[in-house]
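We now fix the convention by which a protein and its fold are recorded. These numbers are not coordinates but entries in a learned vocabulary of local backbone shapes. A record is reproduced here so that you can trace the correspondence yourselves:
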Amino acid sequence: MQLFDFKKEKAQRLHDEGQRLDARGQDEEAIERYLSAIDCDPMRSESYYNIGLIYKYQGRWSESFEFNKKANEIDPADKAARWNLAIAATALRDWGIARKAWKENGIELGDGEGPIEKDFGITSVRLNPADKGEVVWGTRIDPVRVRIDSIPLPESGYHYGDVVLNDGAAAGVREIDEREYPVFNALELFEKSSFKTCIARVAAENQSDIEKLEELFSESHCEFEDWTINVRTLCRQCSEGKPHEYHDRELASNDYGQREGWNSERKLGVAYHNIKDVCQLFDSWQKLSSGILLEIFDDQP
């Protein structure tokens, strides 16, 4: 056997070992095997890519960029490496390289420099995917950044208006008006908004009370969502796939779940800048409707 063939076979064995370690979550050990594989076969693009992938999920963007860049140089046809190179460039805010990388991925952004901010339509994104994985809606402002248009639950650590960096592969779907939208896992908070979140418990006799509140909020700089109907708990299988009839129902333990029929006691998520503005809005609401503010939970610093 020629030395060249022996080294390539050894590189394959080391790469395979790296993949097994990778699958078990042993990141550093996997990286060592991949690097050893590269030592034996410097043109092994998949080893560079796999290291870049590990660094991506660790949020180590400089390292992810360098290894995906090398994988892309060795194998320009590797779409996954091209895509992760673009994600890393976006995370690093290297807009020149990011724009070039997205163009090479077939995404036309037009002329321009600096940050990418377009309207790619609505999508859903899963916050904290390694934990409870709350799915919210937002506007895609570039291929891997979403501005959150929902009001996330306070325990998520995210807020209305935050911009999140998301992964490129869809992990489930959600449906609006019989149209399906992919769910993308958030990788990290990219840009924090100025909004805070509080929870309001109110009593509303009917839907018209809620509509009157919507009217008042629409004229303000605050936002609210009726979590009594908007929030539901899904099993992991449904959350990362397509919710179906059996699992697409509220669990008994869900504090935010909707009960059958009209529930006069509503739990609202409120996005605000100044809590005094929120209080004034609810004061006006109580004067103009039969609604009653029961309590506001505000634990923001």
Q: What stands out?
A: Residues 163 and 191 are 5 Å apart (CA to CA). The chain has ten helices and nine strands.
